[in-house]
Amino acid sequence: MGKGPGLYTDIGKKARDLLYKDYQTDQKFTLTTSSLTGVDITSVGTKKGDLFLADVNTKLKNRNVTYDIKVDTYSNLFTTITVDEPAPGLKAIFSFRVPDQRSGKVELQYLHDYAGISSSIGLTANPIVNFSGVVGSNVLALGTDLSFDTKSGNFTKCNAGLNFSNADLIASLALNDKGDSLTASYYHVVNPLTNTAVGAEVTHCFSTNENTITVGTQHALDPLTTVKARVNNTGKASALIQHEWRPKSLFTISGEVDTRSIDKSAKVGLALALKP
Quick check: 168 and 192 in contact, CB under 8 A? Predict the structure, then answer.
């Protein structure tokens, strides 16, 4: 575990990664090439049904400044400039999208042994201001996540979260959607030698009185191969196997079946990531 509580986005992240990361029902191919000058170029192609999407991402790092430029299928240009450690514990991020003139945003992140703060503001006449803060330690942390629309004068987001961690267990509780939903998550390392872990997430929506429950597990068959499985209370069951066939290059196959409609075809996703 790290020294500090991290950022608000870290609350419940271990359980979310276990239950949702790398699961997909599309076909995705990723190729990354690197040059001796420190330029990384990543090409991504994704097939979603009859639709094919592609983007090219170029990343250049010069000392503590990283330039990230991406062009997608619709000729949108995404640019992110990140400055690491302009002051101890501080990170500055500037991003914008062309041709959207209202997409410019400046974000500051600050990490301390007992706090983590992230604040951003849009570069428009009436910007949306975001603020999230966490106080505590790497064992117990309490945080909030807010968004304020200066044009309407209203809070568009108001969340709060609590996180507890120890060597093999992480539990979190989050109040989202301006108090309309409550999410509890749990992550437990069963065997660190085989990377075996279990996780669960329960969400209750107060306005609809509905519950969503997802449980899952992961296990490393060998140092290069991992299997994962999950199921939720709507009857959707998913599984995947991921193999690192060479350093940093991954092949993933995943599938999803609706146990309440066995007559429907299972959804299968493939992902191949090649890195030098």
Answer: yes
